[in-house]
Design goal:
This is Hopanoid C-3 methylase HpnR. By secondary structure, the protein is of the alpha/beta class. 40% of the residues lie in helices and 15% in strands. It has two domains: 1-150, Rossmann fold (3-Layer(aba) Sandwich); 169-498, TIM Barrel (Alpha-Beta Barrel), CATH 3.20.20.70. It is built from 21 helices and 17 strands. The longest helix is centred in the last third of the chain and has 20 residues, at 398-417.
């Protein structure tokens, strides 16, 4: 079969600070190609809808799959499905990815028959089985993870080994379009999959059933050698949870003489526990480290079930700085914040040298916050669920909340992208331009045209064709079994030594699973 894999357009945040290679879609495309199918990829982060229709006309696919990893992309995907069905009524259309796995039936209802099925869970594990069933005319509901308007197939399954799934990087048509900060261009790579923690605002652990699986250091090094981009974003939800695995990858990189510049995300407690791993990585190319603090006080940390004290968070920041790393942190702005709270956060952020990102508390399907807060939503427009819009009631009038939010973001952006700060990045920018890379330089001037309180407020007034269903009453205690996409398999699904498993259990606040 001829298969077209589609990644939807950029979200608000990614229009400025980064544009990441669609690694998940490349993995699905690679699995489909390994199953014997003819595959193409189009990424609408880097191309247009006009490019999409041109490719569909030229390629004439038998099947089109869409990446539904982000909730805010649901309306665009459904519009494409409707129009594609109208123009090419025989094409088999399906959607997979993180977010749609939690809301499969809702999306199918909204599609009004234009979507054949949702492929729930790890798409690279089952896309070949689905395409074979479509090609052979057998029942697709026998494929694990499939959901249609007529029913649901067996539970989704994991790939047998992360060593056996490789992304179809060669199918991406504009590889120079991907960057994160000054890493321009940058490719993405996966060292491990899943997360063993259980933060209330996150759905990584509910998607993967608190599993944690790793690729072998040799396979990872093979992939790094094949990647042409000098910048590498490590997509793991928490990098180097397992000290031995992180050190083994570093040793393989050193042995082969691989020269790259790396950006990764981790937890403060993981950084402090595995200091030597991060020290070694700082010596082989790690330049940027993102630590999700989420809150600047103990009450906020408790709310998000981040069982890391403020002292430990600050200690982790100090250690990362001591390694010469550029540190970025995230703070979640709660709808309850008033002007005084925003001002206090601004002052705190200005007192530290690190890059600070501000996002907005957003209940996502698959999170505990969703089940507790969904009845309080002030909007059912999928497009506003992008962590940059307020979807819960705000203490301040909404226009004032956005004024304070954007003011905070502008202060922090100026701190790192003002004229004084730009002197430090001028050399980087010149070198990038010499090599034909303009992503980072263009980003410097985009902020005010994207982050604008009047525009954000106007987004709430847009007519919405696709709405979330009205949610049931909130619950005080969430049944965790209702959250999972891949059911929890317990200890055997986590590639951790016993000491690390104990460490994880001590730093999480949920029940055993």
């Amino acid at each position: 079969m001829k298969v077209l894999a589609v990644h939807p357009s950029a979200l608000m945040y990614t229009k400025v600070f980064l544009r990441l290679e669609p690694l998940g879609l490349e993995l699905v495309a690679g699995a489909a190609r390994n199953a014997g199918h003819d595959v193409r990829i189009i990424d609408l982060q880097a191309e247009t809808h006009e490019d999409y229709w041109k490719l569909v006309d030229e390629f004439q696919p038998d099947a089109v799959c869409y990446s539904g990893s982000y909730l805010a992309n649901v309306p665009e995907i459904l519009d494409l499905c409707r129009e594609t069905r109208y123009r090419f009524p025989q094409v088999f259309q399906f959607i997979g990815g993180h977010s749609v796995s939690f809301i499969a039936k809702d999306v199918l209802d909204l599609s009004e028959g234009t979507v054949n099925c949702i492929l729930k869970g790890e798409g690279d594990a089952t896309v070949g089985l689905l395409l074979d069933a479509v090609q052979n005319g057998t029942d697709i509901l026998e494929v694990p993870g499939t959901i249609t308007l007529d029913g649901e197939g067996p539970p989704p399954i994991f790939v047998k080994s992360l060593d056996e799934v490789r992304p179809a990087r060669d199918l991406l048509r504009h590889r120079n379009k991907y960057f994160i900060g000054t890493l321009d261009p940058a490719a993405s790579i996966e060292f491990a999959r899943g997360c063993p923690w259980d933060c209330t605002f996150c759905s990584a652990w509910t998607f993967y059933g608190r599993s944690y699986r790793t690729a072998s250091p040799q396979v990872i090094a093979d992939e790094l050698e094949e990647i042409k981009e000098p910048g590498i974003f490590i997509v793991d939800d928490v990098a180097f949870v397992h000290e031995e695995h992180g050190m083994a990858i570093a040793n393989e990189i050193k042995k082969r003489g691989i020269k790259k510049e790396y950006y990764l995300e981790t937890r403060a407690d993981v950084l402090l526990r595995n200091k030597e791993v991060f020290k070694v990585w700082s010596e082989i190319g790690l330049s940027y480290i993102f630590i999700g603090l989420e809150a600047v006080d103990e009450e906020g940390l408790k709310q998000f079930r981040k069982r890391v004290s403020l002292d430990k968070n600050f200690e982790a920041l100090e250690y990362a700085r001591s390694l010469g790393l550029i540190v970025a942190i995230n703070i979640i702005a709660d709808p309850s914040w008033d002007r005084a709270r925003f001002e206090a956060v601004r002052q705190w952020c200005l007192e530290i040298p690190d890059i600070v990102n501000i996002s907005v508390t957003t209940p996502y399907p698959g999170t505990e916050i969703w089940h507790k807060e969904a009845r309080r939503l002030t909007t059912r427009d999928y497009r506003l669920f992008d962590i940059q819009h307020a979807v819960l009631p705000t203490t301040l009038p909404l226009p004032e909340f956005y004024e304070e939010l954007v003011k905070t973001q502008q202060v922090l952006n100026t701190k790192h992208m003002g004229w004084q700060a730009l002197k430090d990045t001028a050399g980087i920018a010149v070198n990038l331009l010499k090599n034909g890379q303009t992503n980072f330089v263009k980003m410097l001037w985009k902020f005010n045209s994207v982050f604008n309180p009047e525009l954000q407020l106007a987004d709430h007034q847009r007519p919405a064709r696709y709405l979330m269903p009205v949610q049931p009453d909130a619950v005080d205690k969430v049944d965790r079994n209702d959250l999972y996409v891949h059911g929890p398999g317990g200890r055997k699904t986590r590639a951790l030594d016993d000491a690390t498993e104990t460490f994880v259990d001590k730093t999480r606040m949920g029940e055993d699973a």
